[in-house]
Every structure is written in structure tokens, then in C-alpha cells.
Design a protein that fits this description.
alpha/beta; Dehydroquinate synthase-like, alpha domain; seven-stranded mixed sheet; two-stranded antiparallel ribbon; 3-dehydroquinate synthase; EC 4.2.3.4
């Protein structure tokens, strides 16, 4: 699988990644290595990774409890303290081995510890392979508000090895698939059409599908690393999806949604809005809704849920001057950013989702 050159760092695949990692360790004078994991990746992935590591440097493992609920500044403080206690310095290397929570939090910890140390991301879930580990976004949640605190700072390299997906439950794989669907909808109609009938997908070619997703995201990010313009395209489905995810996370009467499950709902809702704004046809909208609903279970969103979800929209990071802005698809495979959407239309989208 060909290495992808991102913005000042490479994305390596499978065996080539370990070769590049070990070569980097030999040629770069690090003082020690810290591997950040969560409790899941410590149990299921660490023993797969360590035999590949060829170095005489001291290796320390830092583990925190798995779950989005732990992606917060308190966990960062604990990790910073452990790094300090174990003698980390500005020549230390941090390796983030895990899903999006680990790569987001670990990247933020490394970017801010002693004003920044090198870090390498090794994503272990489908979602983190195609999304969270690529593009340089790091950060943590503020309460139930997603990714409110963070910096954009690129890793030294990313290593994607699909063997780690053997440890991932089916619902987590579906969660990652949502970002791949998004990449097709906003950038590549032919890629999107591969997912129209999930039963026909040859998942033995998953490496190729992942590689294409990373290429798409990288092409967009390279044009706009700091999300001032076209990178906002990657937020399709996320304006409403993040609000839904946050609401379900904080509400004890709701079952917490995985990121991709919430984004799947957001993509249906924002496709409806795209249709109503005459950016896509009704046939295209129905195709999108049918394809996504074939993969994800319907989620009950009651009338009483709508206002709290709407209230959360104002905290979305894409908003400027208090105005909620959407990225909407402009024909499958293309996107329009900075689109204003009336509250009445958002509520209509929820009504259609329930139908």
C-alpha cells in the first residue's frame, strides 16, 4: 500500500509503517518512548504492537480508562503528571496507540507537554484510521461539548495497520464506516456508490477502501490545514451529528451513541437540508437515506429532545459571530460550505428522519 504524504508527515500502511517507525527511532535521538493507550487498546492491541518495536530506549506505558467520557482535561492532567514523574523531557517521543479518543487526547497531551514533543499516531479503530488520526486535529471535550479544547498540530508520522481491526466490535466498525460514507458524499461519487449495497462490498479489500478515504481527507486538508475554508467540507453531517452525540452523552435517559452512529443521523438530516435547498435532487436524497439506514439502526429522537439539541448547535466550532454554519452537499461528490440554515428547516429534517 503506497505511503500517503500528508502536510509535513507521512501516513504509512501495514509492514511499511513499522519499517519507517524503526528507521525513525534509529536516526532520531530520543531520550525515551511513552506509549499512550486506553484500557481497551492496552488489553487487545499493545501485545500486537510491541514485538514490532526495535529500540533500546526505555519504553513506558501510560493507560487511561477507555470511553469518550474520559476524553477531558482531567485525564490530560493525569497523563501530564505521569509523564513528569517518569522523567519525560523535550526529547521524549509519545506514541498514541488507540482509537480517536487516544489519538485526539494523546496528540493534545504531546503538543502541550513542555510546549510540544514529537508524537506518532497508530490508530486501532476504523474511525481513527480514516478520520481522527489524519489532519492534525488534537483535543478534548469540555463537559459534553465535543472537541472544544485543542490545537492543530501534526504528528511525526501515522502508521495504519488493519490487523488491529480484528480486535474491534462490529458496532465500532460501523461507526468508522460513517466517515468513509461522508468522504464519498463530499468528494467522490464513485467511492460513495461502492457503499450503496453493503452486501456487495468485498471487505477483503478494506485496505484499499481505507487508503482511498485517507487520500480524500488528505487532499482536502492539504488545501486548508487550519480549517479556514474548504476543510470545513469535512464537517458534513457533523454540525447536527455532534449536537446529537453530545445530547445523548449527557442525558442519562439516553443510550450513548458512538461517534459514527451520531454522524450517520447528521448526514441524513443535512442531506435533507441539502435537498430542500435544491442542492441535491429528491432521488439523491432518498438514495442517501436508504443507504445509511441499511447500515445503521434508527435512533428515537423525541419532540422533547429537539430543543436541547438545537441549543447545543450554538457551541459548534464552525460557528462564527454566533451564526450556525453548515457544510451541505452540492450534488453527490461535491460540497458547499458556510451555508446558513433556518431553525424551521432543521426541525423539518428531524421530522423527515423519523418518517
Amino acid at each position: 500500500m503506497q505511503t500517503i504524504q500528508a502536510n509535513n508527515y507521512p501516513v504509512h500502511f501495514n509492514e511499511k509503517g513499522y519499517e519507517a517507525l524503526n528507521s525513525h527511532l534509529k536516526t532520531t535521538k530520543y531520550s525515551n518512548v511513552f506509549i499512550i493507550t486506553d484500557s481497551n487498546t492496552n488489553e487487545y492491541c499493545l501485545h500486537k504492537f510491541l514485538p514490532y518495536l526495535e529500540t533500546d530506549l526505555t519504553i513506558e506505558i501510560i493507560e487511561f480508562e477507555a470511553g469518550e467520557i474520559n476524553k477531558n482535561i482531567d485525564t490530560c492532567i493525569e497523563v501530564w503528571k505521569v509523564l513528569t514523574d517518569l522523567g519525560a523531557d523535550r526529547k521524549s517521543l509519545v506514541i498514541n496507540l488507540g482509537g480517536g479518543v487516544v489519538t485526539d487526547l494523546g496528540g493534545f497531551v504531546a503538543s502541550t507537554f513542555k510546549r510540544g514533543v514529537d508524537f506518532i499516531n497508530i490508530p486501532t479503530t476504523l474511525l481513527s484510521m480514516v478520520d481522527a488520526s489524519v489532519g492534525g486535529k488534537t483535543g478534548v471535550d469540555l463537559g459534553n461539548l465535543k472537541n472544544q479544547i485543542g490545537v492543530i498540530n501534526v504528528p511525526t508520522m501515522v502508521l495504519i495497520d488493519t490487523q488491529y481491526l480484528e480486535t474491534v466490535p462490529q458496532n465500532e466498525l460501523r461507526s468508522g464506516l460513517a466517515e468513509m460514507l461522508k468522504h464519498g458524499l463530499i468528494f467522490d461519487k464513485n467511492y460513495w456508490e461502492q457503499f450503496l449495497d453493503i452486501s456487495t462490498i468485498d471487505f477483503s479489500d478494506l485496505d484499499l477502501l481505507i487508503h482511498r478515504s485517507v487520500v480524500i481527507k488528505n487532499e482536502i486538508v492539504m488545501q486548508d490545514p487550519t480549517e479556514k475554508n474548504i476543510r470545513k467540507a469535512l464537517n458534513f453531517g457533523h454540525t447536527l451529528g455532534h449536537a446529537i452525540e453530545s445530547y445523548f452523552l449527557e442525558n442519562e435517559n439516553k443510550t450513548t451513541l458512538l461517534h459514527g452512529e451520531a454522524i450517520a443521523i447528521g448526514m441524513i438530516l443535512e442531506s435533507f437540508i441539502s435537498w430542500q435547498k435544491k442542492l441535491i435532487s429528491e432521488i439523491e436524497y432518498r438514495q442517501i437515506k436508504l443507504a445509511i439506514n441499511a447500515i445503521y439502526d434508527a435512533v428515537q429522537i423525541d419532540k422533547n429532545d429537539l430543543q436541547p439539541i438545537m441549543d447545543l448547535l450554538i457551541h459548534d466550532k464552525k460557528n462564527e459571530f454566533g451564526t450556525i454554519q453548515f457544510a451541505l452537499i452540492d450534488g453527490i461528490g461535491s460540497i458547499k460550505i458556510n451555508q446558513l440554515v433556518e431553525n424551521e428547516l432543521i426541525l423539518s429534517a428531524f421530522e423527515d428522519y423519523k418518517s
